Amino acid sequence: xxxxxxxxxxxxxxxxxxxxxxxxxxxxxxxxxxxxxxxxxxxxxxxxxxxxxxxxxxxxxxxxxxxxxxxxxxxxxxxxxxxxxxxxxxxxxxxxxxxxxxxxxxxxxxxxxxxxxxxxxxxxxxxxxxxxxxxxxxxxxxxxxxxxxxxxxxxxxxxxxxxxxxxxxxxxxxxxxxxxxxxxxxxxxxxxxxxxxxxxxxxxxxxxxxxxxxxxxxxxxxxxxxxxxxxxxxxxxxxxxxxxxxxxxxxxxxxxxxxxx
Length: 261
Hints:
Blueprint: H1 2-16, H2 18-36, E1 42-47, E2 55-63, E3 69-76, H3 80-92, H4 95-120, E4 130-133, H5 137-145, H6 148-156, E5 158-161, H7 163-235, H8 244-260
Parallel strand pairs: 3-4, 4-5
Antiparallel strand pairs: 1-2, 2-3
Helix pairs in contact: 2-7, 3-4, 4-6
């Protein structure tokens, strides 16, 4: 029990450190992005706002005009101290503490939203909205339960996402990327089909010409077999026929004489 208590105490120390919390949220955010998107579809620690040195943790590269890119800024936030104080108030059943801690959490979330809006949103270089990533599902659920989602969208153009909703968003974007890639390649496919059609037309012409030549050759053969054969038969009409056996003997004798000569 003592070891467990020490471990819990160490965890609280870690989570109470603002910098450490930020790193944890950023690592979780990066893990989800890297699992779903390719390296070409996002950037890390990028400046999205002109005349600013502020770098957003991640920015998804959305297709823009003239094959350019538009950034969708994404920043992880984790107000662990305010959230865990609220959780403790819920566990204690203290209504006053719940109201007070809830108000503090709402203020922190709104402050984060304003910070993201002012630092990273810069249309047309970026989308006109950004995403605040909350690394704990229960924290995201608390923000949604308090009705902050609509307020943040309306006031600061910030969308809230937990791990599950953010993964679903990225999967939807990935499907959009694939559809767009197919649309871009559709013109190439159309050109290939056009070339095939042209080649097939030429091939058809060659086949027609070959068919005509074959028909002409067949007609000449029919003429040769028919007309010439009838002429030969007329000239041989007055010559007496002999039996097949006698014909073989005569032809064999003729062949032998030719070989001797």
